[in-house]
Write a structure and sequence with these properties.
Blueprint: H1 3-13, E1 29-34, E2 37-44, E3 47-54, E4 58-61, E5 70-76, E6 81-88, E7 99-103, E8 106-113, E9 116-118, H2 122-134, E10 137-143, E11 149-155, H3 159-169
Antiparallel strand pairs: 1-2, 2-3, 3-5, 4-11, 5-6, 6-9, 7-8, 7-10, 8-9, 10-11
Length: 172
């Protein structure tokens, strides 16, 4: 299973960081709330999936309609994936442009497909996790396929605890 397929499965399961339950096609369990972040787990046909997710604390979008927005980190132990960072924008991205996440003095470039964005390499994921553990917020800028720009601010308070809980739930 490729990275985008795995992430799309988790994105479909994503619950709001403050919500106790969300109706989804798959059973999911919220395993904890950690400040602005929550951790979840779900048993899927491909195996167990665990993730930490948050919604933006601040949003600015110059386009038309917009759905749910999340910054997520997902663990797929049966696929050998310990860390997959992704962004769900709530609109279809302009796929010819990168999505930028700025944490402290570091900037990370994500490639976009439909309403999701991912990092290219596992090394980049290790770097962004390190930055997320140390940082206070992530500012994410993306561009809509139909025009408009979004700037979302995600608090990183609670990230480390939520990520650790997700990894523990998946035996990592």
């Amino acid at each position: 299973m490729n990275r985008m397929t795995l992430c799309a499965a988790a994105l479909a399961l994503a619950g709001a960081a403050g919500a106790s339950s969300v109706a989804t096609a798959q059973e999911q369990e919220r395993i904890g709330a950690f400040r602005y972040w929550s951790a979840f787990t779900s048993q899927r046909p491909e195996g167990k999936v665990c993730w930490a997710a948050t919604k933006p604390s601040d949003q600015d979008f110059g386009g038309k309609d917009r759905g749910d927005v999340f910054l997520m980190i997902t663990v797929y132990p049966d696929a050998g994936v310990d860390t997959e960072v992704s962004i769900l924008s709530g609109y279809d991205y302009d796929e010819s442009r990168t999505v930028q996440a700025k944490i402290g003095s570091q900037t990370f470039s994500f490639f976009a497909v439909k309403d999701g964005a991912w990092l290219e390499t596992r090394n980049e994921e290790k770097q962004i996790v390190s930055a997320m553990r140390k940082g206070a917020k992530a500012n994410v800028t993306g561009y809509a396929a139909g025009g408009g720009r979004s700037t979302d601010t995600f608090s990183l308070l609670g990230f480390t605890a939520a990520y650790n809980a997700a990894k523990k739930a998946c035996g990592r």
